[in-house]
Write the structure tokens for this entry.
Amino acid sequence: MNKEPQTFLIDRNRSVKQAMRQMKEIGQKELFVTDSEGRLFGALSDGDIRMWILREGGLDEPVASICNRNPRVVAPGYELETVKQMLLDYKIEAIPVVDHDRIVADVLVWDEVFRENAPRLREPVNLPVVVMAGGKGTRLDPLTKVLPKPLIPIGEKPIIEIIIDRFVAAGVMDFYLSINHKAKMIKSYFEEAERSYRVQYIEETMPLGTAGGLRLVKGQIGSPFFVTNCDIVIDSDYGEIARFHRDHQNDLTIVVSCKRYIIPYGVCTIESGGILKSIKEKPEHDLLVNTGMYVLNAELLELIPEGRLYNFNELIMAAQGKGFRVGVFPISEKSWIDVGQWEEYHKAVKNFHIG
């Protein structure tokens, strides 16, 4: 296999947040937890982490608290066909080779086991996608005085094409682009582009906010669908997001990112009369923040008023007020980049790998 087995191993005392970072760095969704002697203690998947976060578990908790203590393993001398069948039956990406002392001798990974005949592990996404591409992009002035925000390049491609390419790789063929500011430039770009997917335009005659333009697809989309801002790139399994939306019977699913904020000061707590109760130096807070990607059921389009500015927070509150089920799908901080901010845009240009 290409990766060293040690890259898949994590000590049982390491934190959930450290596990999320390690998964992102090695590009895998499974780690194997070991004890202080290097023996296999359990297995940890990104799904385990997601459910832990949804139960409001802390990111500083040790992975020993949430891992599966009875993972699937094989012994040295395994039959390759047996491994293939286990990966298929249990829909897992990797399986450890464990000796009689429970020491991990190797890790067998899906792509390496099946090689060129690897069946598709990730299920295809058969949902349409609406890209909200009508904003002025004022946070990226002065670039957006010349180009519409969706056409600002990262490397050799504009932001919107990077977003679309990731959905196409997941099996999406139908895209709706909500456009307003510099709409002709966006349409001209896609008229000239070589593409295998279908594009339809939702033309706003006036700025309608982050959700108002969705009203214009009412009657055109009858299934659940993705919505994404045109200045974010999410590196995640879109099929898994769609399945999560379906399996949890959500009407609206918000893709959220774990974000750690550090207050660079000593934070004081006081009692009445101005008496200092305590002081905490540079406290850290783990929050779930809205990335700007969603899965919606088509019924929610009825909640959006016609012809006026309407933002996604209003739609979320309206959905909750009407008794619709609103859920969240957590991803790691490193799986999300907001290129609509100058600082993040420069990071993307320098570091972001377009796959």
About this structure: The chain has two domains: 5-117, 129-257+286-351. The domain at 129-257+286-351 is CATH 3.90.550.10 (Spore Coat Polysaccharide Biosynthesis Protein SpsA; Chain A). DSSP finds eleven helices and 18 strands in the chain. The two ends are 21 Å apart (CA to CA).
